């Protein structure tokens, strides 16, 4: 029996579980780590692969209108000039000269502290779900420090980018709490640079791709000419991307090396075409998150205001997830018009036009771009799965992963380890299942302890071989992680059952 489910989890608890059980490690840990980079351990790599495979299967294999590519990470530098990344892939950065801390100016908020019309100073806070309370406490503390009487006026938190040059000198640094050390914001290009070939001059500069999308655009003609795709159709790609984020934060939510899963879905250029495709994609992607086990009530939509869109974009909606640090973007779904293909046509001199046979017409298709990160999906899946409950009076930690995503699909136990017929049968079933899935054999310790170890890494099914298996009817016990219920089934049914659950 299970009771008392709790799902609220802090990032500290997740980070510690991930390290302890081999999901995620800090990169280069023995050298003190390197900020913004992570390594995935034995369970983490399985889970990442499962996420990527589920996406690829559902978005590419199980559709007739999407094909995949795998472009190189380093591309011709002109790609990034044409796409606008060299000039504009920037975030506003602000430095604290005293602490040497660096912040994103759009994540740093400030407010004057005003008593009866008089500004007595300023407070600053970093963007967090609790920043308003933190700001109010800081304002109170400032009032006490200056021994001022009177009623504080309500604070008006604004982004640091909106401060005037006079205010820069008065706003305290979040690191030191003192004013005078923050620089004005300046634009910082987030692309990592490298040099290709033996010569290290400007002509050899190249970039590690900050997204996979441009690899798709520059191959648009290749795919059209070599395949049998017809608009509307999509090209999908999964691959590493690199962004020199100013403040990598919140574990794997924002890192400097991550993996992207992106689709460019090419549609006709008519004015009434994109709204329909855009909303279809939002629904398709929301449903996919539910299909991989993320409950609907943890997901949201953030529709970007028209005024804040890039000049070429027609619309952008983020699918958000309730992360421990707040409701944040999980996936962006943008209607980008013809911008990217036209830019590459103009910059390369090669036509990006498509001939639509049905319409007997030539045009540059428009595009809908659903783009998400493997790592953010990993974190969302982990947050959604984490549960503490009570089983038979004992507290247990359980990761309720969908069987598609679970790193270990099933664990196989002989009831006891000193009875060779049980052990042999367990090994036999283990090797049969191992041919198809990542499964685990365990004979050490009491059966209850073995269950708990699997619960904590999210293994959905435990299969026990006992005396009835050998002496009676050949059936095994299958125990369900979430309900902890057990049922007996024969080997053929077991295989069918697992297949249906793991590869729906
Ligand atoms: P943010 O505003 O959070 O920086 P973004 O709007 O720049 O994100 P996009 O360029 O739309 O992000 O990237 C698409 C997706 O790639 C994001 O929804 C996210 O899932 C993932 N992603 C982007 N940057 C990072 C990163 N630094 N670390 C991990 N995943 C990322």
Can you describe this structure in just a few lines?
The protein has 15 helices and 27 strands. α2 packs across α11. The chain is 31% helix and 29% strand.
Could you outline the blueprint of secondary structure elements for this entry?
Blueprint: E1 2-6, H1 11-20, E2 24-26, E3 38-40, H2 42-61, E4 66-68, H3 77-82, H4 85-88, E5 90-95, E6 102-104, E7 108-115, E8 118-126, H5 131-145, E9 158-159, H6 165-168, E10 186-189, E11 193-195, E12 205-207, H7 213-218, H8 220-226, E13 233-242, E14 257-267, H9 274-291, E15 299-303, E16 315-323, E17 326-337, H10 339-348, E18 354-356, E19 361-363, E20 366-373, H11 374-385, E21 386-391, E22 394-399, E23 410-414, H12 420-434, E24 439-441, H13 447-457, E25 461-465, H14 467-471, E26 476-480, E27 486-489, H15 491-502
Helix pairs in contact: 2-11
Residues 211, 243, 245, 254-255, 258, 260, 329-332, 371-373, 375-376 line the site of adenosine-5'-triphosphate (ATP).
